[in-house]
Amino acid sequence: MRGRALHFLAWHGIEEMPLIGPLLKEVGTMHSIKESYGISLDKDESRMVLGELEELLRAGELCVIFPEGAIKHWIGRATMKEFKAGAVRLAARAGVPIILVGLTGTRWVVPNIINFHDFGGPDNGFWVPMALPVKVRVKFGTPFEVDPAAADDRAVRDSETSRLRDTIIAIVGSM
Fold first, then answer.
1. Contact (Cβ atoms closer than 8 angstroms) between residue 116 and residue 125
2. C-alpha angle 173/174/175, rounded to 5°?
């Protein structure tokens, strides 16, 4: 990974957050999708962004996607949201493996005093970034080879997405 940029697929609101938004914009590695609670607000734009990421992957670039499709606030360590199928579909279309990463402790790095998702969204809610002395753990798993049929077959994609989720849960559980 040394010397290579990480391209991030993210919710468009990240661009508006202090510090991280301007940094990702400046580096040019932010690829955002307008969405609300996991539902795309502009399907054409989403297809375009995912197409750009597919081309980056085919060219050997690295893309970071959080398959839960949302930040989880105040949810326990053993709890994980359902995964969206986008990461599996993208990897299958680009013909690349998924590098698995288990993370713990990250929800405390920039916690919310009040969870803005429950109070009208980031534009209307109260959000205060706060750094705490926390321990973040990162564990890499073996490359996850996606069934190429997941690119076009919804049943295969759903099965592979479930297998991906189970594998990441096992990684996090072993930390």
1. yes
2. 95
